[in-house]
Fold:
Amino acid sequence: MSIDGIVGFLFIALSVASLYLLVAVGLSIVFGSLKYVNMAHGVLYLGGAYIGLLIASSEQYGGLLSDLGQVGLGWGFIPALILTPVIIFVLGIVMERFLAKPFYERDLLDQLLVTFGVLIAAQEFVAIIFGRTGTIYPRPEWLTGAISLPVIGTPPGMSAASTIRVLVVALTLVLILAIFAFFKYTDYGLAVRAGTEDSEMAEMLGIRVGRPFLLIFAVGSAYAGLAGVLGGSLFNVTSGIGMEIIIPSLVIVIMGGVGSLRGTVVGALLAGLFFATATELMPSMTRASIYLLAIVVLSLRPNGIFPSTEVGQ
Amino acid sequence: MSIDTIRNSVNGDSTLVSWETWNRIKHTERFVFLSSVLFVLLFSYTFGRAPVISGIFRGYHGLAMTILIWSIFALGFNLLLGQTGLLSFGHAMFFGTASYAAALFAIHVYNEPLVVVLVGTLAAVALGVVSALILLRLHTVYFSIVALAIAQLLYFLAREPLVEITKGINGLDIPRVALLGIIDLEHEYSGLVGTLLVNNLYIFIGVFFVAVVALITRIRKSPYGLIFKSIRENEKRTAFVGLDVWRYKFAAFILSAAIVGLAGGLMAVNTQFAGVERLYWSVSGDIVVMTVLGGLGTLAGPVIGTFVFFYFKGIVNGFPALGNYWLLLLSLSFTAVVWIYPDGIWGMLTDFTVALRDPKELVAKTKQRLANLLPSGGER
Structure:
């Protein structure tokens, strides 16, 4: 394999891993610290993809919007990339207050069922409004082809890495480092960690764990929204993508070990690597690969790669 | 059911027709068996052809058969979730695998409906044994999600790498043959039998339905079934009593797989087709919706849930203005049921009928509830 081939392969693996990771990070934090399993997290990805599409371009949709002609602001890709996470952040706050909070004390299976119902309802809602046929993000000129930086042009050896994939990987890297730093160095992060350890004790010490939890929930939501925009440009956008992304993401969270952010990162990287390897060697196995990986890993280590908290045992 | 009703009936003179006798009768196995036979006899007729009622339902015979098969599926699923407390989000794997096994056997080896259904069931049991080894080491959400992962793995395997065997998204067609070589499944009767049951295929499916109901009632009434329930209530305590929890979970899982496999085999015979969409996650999701909506852990609940689901999917779907919103309405009502009323539709019905037996108390309770609601509504 030439150097170009290896770089291209790596960026396919990393970009897929990044996308899953952006969605899984929110799931993992909420599952680990709040003991809340949130299938409705897929709604945030779905919402992010469609809101981003509305901001970025102006298109003809099916469904209830079919009579309105071209719908959307058409501001371009960058505004969508910045505004969508902000909107989804707010949606995340709403979701935490009205969907998640009433269920913190209830059974894990009830949470799973309710959020599943919400996800299916939301997907159907989107399908009714936007129609059932998929669309793709219009990709601006500078995002197509190989990456080309100002001054130096295409860096040596990078000609096989497409710009969009490089962007996805770089953004994810920054955001994941940010969340690790948040946990490690800020007071809010400390409060979340304390609340994860023992929320009753933390509250008795005068720490209001509710707010840091709300914040972390909303941040996770914003990440999922951003993943929606990025995923929309890598794959396609249909009303079914919420479920399509949430299944592998949940699998990754469980594979990595619930409550362990490190585990989620490793899980996502493994999944991306498997995905890319399958694409190279056996294209028909591409989509099955991640499930195969998860089943093998969980057969060997039932608590995930980095088991930290014991949920539901 | 409740202590109140029993006390009432003791105070009243105990005649043959009293709540007491009814309470006793309705829990007997024979009553459940007879009512399931009666249900099969009347269901297609009331749903599809009875004068006034079918005009309201707008049902048809084919949908009645589909509902019966999916009811078997839901009953099998309920044995695991409602009885034993294990939520599998991947039961499509048994349904789809059994369907494929039945179709492949019919095409390549020997085509006879009974044998084909049996092969489907056995295939599901075999898959159940393998997946149980992986799944039963996991708990709650882990169990659900990994079950989903296994089902998705099978779906994507059947869809592309195994396309030579499964014919991918085109699926497999099975020719229709006579049952035991003599009974034509599509033979349509005339007279009373024709009015009630229409054809042999309906009877074929109906017999399996009654058998599954009888089997599940037997399990529910047996000490064995009680252990399933105790695992649902508290796994640790069950283990402390000295029972091997894993073994009982394994048994429940295999039984559930077998019943779902039976439904998958019947589906292949009924539609003369086996396709990859029966392995898709949406099938697993649908069965969860049906069972929970109808009422978990009961016998009538899953059947009612299946009926409601297919009523929306097959009939509301065709309504002029409302049709487009069928799945939205259904998923919203599912969410509402889990949120507010976890006992489901059947739970609502039984609670209501129990309340109806004592109208005075019902009125008093409603008044009190309203009184409670008003001041606290302003406060919170």
Q: What stands out?
A: Chain A has a mean pLDDT of 85.
